[in-house]
């Protein structure tokens, strides 16, 4: 198995996170200090931007040897899938929107999870983890629905505790299936030693 590729800050060159083998990333990223334009500290905070500063990013070897999760929520969702013995992939399916004639961002969508072999609770399909659904995320989901109708039918949005009312209202209006992360936590967290 190949060693995951390190992604570094484009300005100060501090290591930020790792990408699994074969994952293509063609955008430059900055650490939080360079992003804000302040003098770099001795140890750069490992983050893409201020909005990700509190998220626990990185590889969880007990979950998967190469996948670098962007948050504890994603890592815990993967733990559930492993616990249930399901076959899944993480951030390996990219949907592009260039054939839709859009002139503004976003131009693509990297789906969080794809379950290859599921069960009754988690059927095969795509799963998007949303800790907080910003306007950009809503735009991506609407473009996905328009340009990829078959994939839209098998996509489930996992909404997080604090924002579920607003996000569920969006999912209902757009026609997306959804799951509540807090309910998954109640059901599965006590079954795993390393739940975050």
Q: Major sheet: order of its strands?
A: 5-8-9-10-11
Strand content: 15-25%
Write the CATH fold name of the largest domain: Trna Endonuclease, Chain: A, domain 1
Helix content: 25-40%
CATH class of the largest domain: Alpha Beta
Continuous helix count: 6
Mean pLDDT: 84
Order of helices and strands: EEHEEHEEEEEHHEHEH
What is the number of beta strands?
11
Number of domains: 2
CATH architecture of the largest domain: 3-Layer(aba) Sandwich
Q: What would you call the shape?
A: globular
**Which class do the helix and strand fractions yield?**
alpha+beta
**Which regions are unreliable across 5 or more consecutive residues at pLDDT < 50?**
43-54
Our Rg estimate from Cα atoms comes to: 17 Å
Task: Explain what you see.
- Helix content is 28%, strand content 22%.
- It is an alpha+beta fold.
- The protein folds into two domains: 47 residues, no CATH class; 134 residues, Trna Endonuclease, Chain: A, domain 1 (3-Layer(aba) Sandwich).
- It has a five-stranded mixed beta sheet with strand order 5-8-9-10-11, with helices on both faces. Strands 1-2 form a two-stranded antiparallel sheet.
- The protein is globular.
